[in-house]
Amino acid sequence: MTDRRRFLKKSSFVLGAVTAGTVAPLNAGALEGSGCASRSLRRSAIFGWEVSNLNNNGANIYFEVAHGMVLESMEIDVAFMINSAPSAAGFAEVLCTAGLSRGGPPTFSSGPQVYPSFPTSSDFANVTVFNPNGLNVGFDGALGQGGLYEVILKTWVPGDGTASATSRNVHLEPFVGLHAGDFLFFHMDHGGVQGDAEMQMALGYTLI
Asked: With b meaning 16 or more CB within 10 Å and e meaning fewer, what string describes 58-79?
């Protein structure tokens, strides 16, 4: 966790390859009503991706925004399950992130987790920890600009693998303006018992 926090708080990273397992697009498509020929009406699009055999590494996926729009809502489901019973009981966790890169593709760290880069936000001061009990506290040193979503899935995996799958649904209403040439990116990385992770999303937006 300390290494993960250290990666996430940095302001820039070298572009890295998507190396974790097999990345497969799922259910890519768009949903538009009969009146969506008008640029002023709300539209929606759906997309999904899965990373197989996550094993203390990670992957990213991203796409360019083709038209100016207001991103009004995001419905995101993420799920993790092990591939087989582990050799020993242990934890498993998957960090799931979504963000916005202005004016060009996002960049990622070169390590196995390939963390996305978030420039430090100038809208907030650095984070301060109040820790009178001397606990082991891991935290990001500053807030990252352009982050839209961050969820951590954690589960304990017993020796036989029973009841170790975990999932989460999050509904967001960011109401953020996007320009043609901006990019949306999505990240999943893993620690602990090996498994598969999947992210499905629905985006609601209005063209401007």
From this structure: bbbbbeebeeebebbebebebb
